Amino acid sequence: MKNTSFFPILLFVVTFSIGMEAIYMRFGEVGSEQGGWIVAAGVVAAVVAASVRIANQWDRVIVLRLGKFYQLKGPGIFFMIPVIDMAAYWIDMRVITDAFNAEKTLTKDTVPVDVDAVLFWRVVDPEKVALDVADYRSAIGWASQTALRDVIGKTMLSNMLEGREQISDELRKIIDERTEPWGINVISVEIKDVRIPPALEDAMSMQAQAERERQARVILGDSERQVAEKFGEASKTYINNPVALHLRAMNMLYEGLKDNATIVIVPSSVIDTMQLGSVAGLSALTMEIGQSAEKKEEKQPADKDVSQ
Question: In whole angstroms, what is the distance from residue 191 CA to residue 55 CA?
Fold first, then answer.
């Protein structure tokens, strides 16, 4: 991009002013009689202004002399011969970012996807960029897009969704190989977004949900197996110790009844098997627990009244 500077204009004004001052000092006045000298001063000022250029720190200028490459100028101030020399290209040496995409491109497993990416690149050889490529910005854009389509066509959809880093690195290598002869270096490529058809997106969501449900069932089954193993180990302890089994059974019954007055119907055969005692004794224990719970509930309102 050509650099815009007011320095040549300033140089023209200063040179023309010096010429006018010289004419005044020579003739004592500046009028129509000195018209030829005034025109000559203007021409000299225009030539001086046209021969000076200033390039920014990040700019390199391709100078052609009579149509042939002459020299690479910049940064800073440089001089050219008007009419004979021409500043053909102003090359930006900074890192440049370009966005590119590939729409409706089929992956290796024939899934149409839209992929957006960003390319980071810079010019390393201004002479090649100016002389070997007509429009290097368009050239690198098309090279990036075709490389992206090639990579998509060789990649499975699952790998594209999970391995963006690997795809970005492969893209960078391909684009760099294509643009290196032009004097361009590709720094990196970043995949911004991968869009798939909505129907396929819904199917993948259902598949993921089913997979999570399957994993939950597997975990639940494994938990049940571990619990059964622990019960098996506990049964070995109770089989030779009836007293321990009796105490455990009574404790389970007590834990189930102590918080609320629940009526539990237990077959007498189960009571005899678990050695919980007679049915009458079990009923008395249940009534005692129920009465204790009722007394506890009556005591709580009384305590609240006293506190008030």
Answer: 35
Enter the tokens of residue 300.
């709580």
Q: What is the pTM of this model?
A: 0.61
pLDDT by 10-residue block (mean), the chain, 308 residues: 70 86 77 78 87 89 91 89 89 92 86 90 92 90 91 86 85 92 92 82 72 84 84 73 70 65 55 52 56 62 49
3-state SS, residue 108: coil
Q: CA–CA separation, 208 vs 247, rounded Å?
A: 48
Contact 132, 155 (CB under 8 A): no
Of residues 102, 16, 69, 265, the one with CA closest to residue 61: 69
Alpha helices in 239-267 (DSSP H): 242-257
Dig out the tokens for 52 from the structure.
């000076």
Question: 285 with 255: CB under 8 angstroms?
Answer: no
The C-alpha atoms of residue 206 and residue 214 are separated, in whole angstroms, by: 12
> How far apart (Å, rounded) are the C-alpha atoms in residues 40 and 307?
114
Q: How far apart are CA 199 and CA 83, in angstroms?
A: 65
One-character DSSP codes across 136-151: HHHHHHHHHHHHHHHH
